[in-house]
Structures are given as C-alpha cells and as structure tokens.
Description:
Blueprint: H1 16-50, E1 54-60, E2 63-69, H2 74-80, E3 90-95, E4 100-105, E5 108-114, E6 117-123, H3 128-135, E7 144-147, E8 150-152, E9 162-164, E10 167-169, E11 178-183, E12 186-192, E13 195-201, H4 206-212, E14 222-224, E15 235-240, E16 243-248, E17 253-258, H5 263-269, E18 278-281, E19 293-298, E20 305-310, E21 314-319, E22 328-330, E23 335-346, E24 349-360, E25 367-372, E26 387-398, E27 425-427, E28 438-441, E29 445-451, E30 460-464, E31 476-483
Parallel strand pairs: 1-4, 5-11, 12-15, 16-19, 21-25, 26-30, 27-29
Antiparallel strand pairs: 1-2, 3-4, 5-6, 7-8, 7-11, 9-10, 12-13, 14-15, 16-17, 18-19, 20-23, 22-25, 23-24, 26-31, 27-30, 28-29, 28-31
Amino acid sequence: MPHRDRRGPAPPAGDVTVAGRRGLHFDRRRREHLAVLSAIFVVSAFGYLMLPPRTVQLQVDGASATLRTHSGNDVAVLEAAGYDLRPGDRLTALDGEGRDVLRVERAHAVRLTADGQAFEIRTHAATVEQLLEEAGVVAGDRDSVLIDGVLVSPAAPLRQPRLVARGFTDDPDEDDGLDVDVRRAVPFTIVTDAGETLSTSSRPNIVQALREAGVTVGPGDRVTPDPAAPLEPDARIEVRRALAITVALPSEHRAVYTFAGTVGDALAEAGIVLPPDAFVEPAPESPISQGMAVRVVQLSASSDEEREFIESSTVYRSDPSLGPGQTRTEAGRDGVLVRRYDIGYVNGEEATRTLAEEYYDPEPQDTVIYYPEQRGGGDAAPADGSIVQTMRVYATWYNPASAGRPASDPAYGRTATGVQVTYGVVAVDPDIIPLGTRMFIPGYGYAVAADTGGAVQGYIIDLGYPDGVAVDWSSRWLDIYILS
C-alpha cells in the first residue's frame, strides 16, 4: 500500500519554494520570541536572587514579627506573612536599626447612627469627638452619645476601657465594630406648684430627665406620666409635691406623705387606726400643713392620769473615726410625759381637772446616727501612688429619702450590699465598676462602690449622702481615680 502524508495533499509544484520560505520565516519568529521571554525570565530571576536580602519587622494588630525577604514590595511582604490590608488601614514604612519596619495601623469599624441615619465608617479617630467631627455630626450639650449602648462622654476614647477584677482591659484584636448612637435631646415641660419650666434632655426616661433638669422627686410626690416611662418629645411632666407630716403614735412615730386635706383624712389614708380611748392633736378636722406634727394621745386606764407620748427625734452627727460607707447608731427612745390629775366627773364627763404631778417616764432620748466626716474632698488626686486608673463618669447624688421608702420600712436607707447610705457610699453599674472598688472623687472624697440602682447604667455613678445634710453636689462629668 502506498504511504499517505498525514499533513494532507501536496501543494502544486509551482508553490513549493514559496510555501517553504513562508514556513521557515514563521518558525524563525516563534523561536526568537521564545528566546526573548526566556532571557527576560532568566534575567528577572537572576536579578531577584542578586537583590540583597533585607530584614523587615512587621508590627500588626499589637504583635511584632521579624522576617528576611528579597522582595522590595511592602504589600507583597505583608501578604507573604499572612496579613491583609483592610479598607482604611494605614501602612507606614519606617527605618529601624539595621532593618525596615512596616507598621499597620488598623482602622476601627464603626456603625454611627444619628438623626435617623446610619453610617458605616472605618476610622482612625481616637475619641468620640473626633469621630463625630469626621462624620460631620454635631452633638449638643444635652445630647447623649452611647457606645454599644453605654453612655459615654463626648471627649471619651472611642475604645472604652472596662474595669474588671484585676484592672483595665482594651483588647486591640476586637474588630467586630462599634455601635455609636447619638441620641438627640428633646424638649419637654415641667409643671410644678411654682409654675411651668421648659427644658431639654436626651435621657431615656422621665425620672432621669427630671434629675438632669435639677428637679428632685421626693417621697410621696406624684409624677405624671409614670417616672419610669420613656421621655417623649414635647412631653408635659407634672410633679405634685406631697405634704410631709409627722405622726407620733403611742408605740412609734411615722413620717407620712399625703395629699389629704385634713388630719383625719391623712391618718385614714396612711392606714392609722386610733386605739381605744385615744384622741388626736390637732383635731381630725384641722387642715394639713407642711411639716405639721400630729400626736395621737391615749389615756391610761386610770382616770386620774394622762400619759402624753413625746416623740423623740433622729439627729445626724459626723464621726471622724468612721471610714467611707460606715455608720454607727445610738438608738434613742420615745418618752412619756406623765401628768397626774385629780379629776372630777359629772355624768361621765370631766368636770374638774387639777394637775397634781408631772414627770417623764421614761424621758425621751434622741436617736443619733453617726456618719463619716467628709474629708479629702479637694480636687487634687491622691499622691500616695494608690491610683490604678482614671475614669470619666457622670456623677449624680442621692440620700436615703430619695429612694421613696417610708422611714419605718426596714429597708429604708439600705444599699444593695447591706450598708447604710451615707458619705463614702457610691452606687455604680457593676459591669463597669465592680462592687467593692475603692475610689477618690474630686470635690467629694474617698469612697467605695457599695450600691446599685436602676438609673445607674454605664458610666454613671451616684454619690451617697446621709439624711439631714445639706447637699452641695451638682451633677456633672468629671474624672475619678480608681484606687488599689
């Protein structure tokens, strides 16, 4: 069988020479092209290997690593080391001692919400003020800024440190993003017996808004709407002040806060039932006035003796030997003024009364509650080296009466840790400042975290004061010192 060329039929005889020259020309060009590429590859590889190796120190995410490389591309060096550059990150090349330093400063991921708009930002801002300025958001004096739901000062760092059992922590590896919320202050009206006052606040509920406006809600006062209700724009908040009276009973004395019009109605409203053969001074039909003292007087079984219960008082005195949060009580007692009369009755009604004898049995004694003497309340920080950290907080104040419990309640003035509210006791958010933490507060003094409260959330603290003491504290942002 004859052999068949697999390349196809032979060309006509007249084209053989021409076709052969064209094929040779094509093969020559391909070989030249491959030779050029090979030369470039060889030169590049030779040049790469001939480049002197350099020592590079990488500083990324709080960690440091050193490597040697022939590459002159900084981004390629980072990628080879397993690091990536995210949007907004800064890559800085520095000259070290005999080595190159590549530093990556990560941008914070922030979700900013303000005026109904949400922004996704990657930023190098160090403080809340810098972030807001970068985003073009202006925060007013009464506006609130929250980071991850926690109230912070506008001058606070963007990464908020949290106090834990052994100190502060701020993990630089956390990059889950921050939620920053600018809560705008809304206008509202406060209506009291003195008239109407316009104010603004960004606090979440009515009681906090009133406190920021300098309005204290006392025991028995009525607030409409409910103090725990959210603060709505243009809200009209009515504060009605209860009248405080003191009722001296045969066995105890009670503080009563009432809206009743007469003594009898006030006693009935308080659930006070008169014992047999007792009478009230002033009379039940007497009108109520602020600070009135009401006595319930019961005669003894003997018709010739009158026993008048004398209400003892509770007084507060400072004791420099007591430390922050400590109190000491010297219990007093009510007294009885005994008057013995020679009485003559006519038809069961008193006709004559002659005082024969008068004495105390027993004599009344005041109850004395000693509280720590306020000292060290200057603005200078302690210089004894005991400061662990400085924290910026919003400091308000409270006392036992502000809790709303009557003085006869066993829990009156008691804190979450069981101690009495007094100088040196501070209510805190335990997620931010653990209970038991010692601190120094400029303008107040040394204190200990010993109480909690529903309105004490985030970077808010409440400074304790005893009853009967004039409070000279104004709520404000300030730096406090956490002590060892």
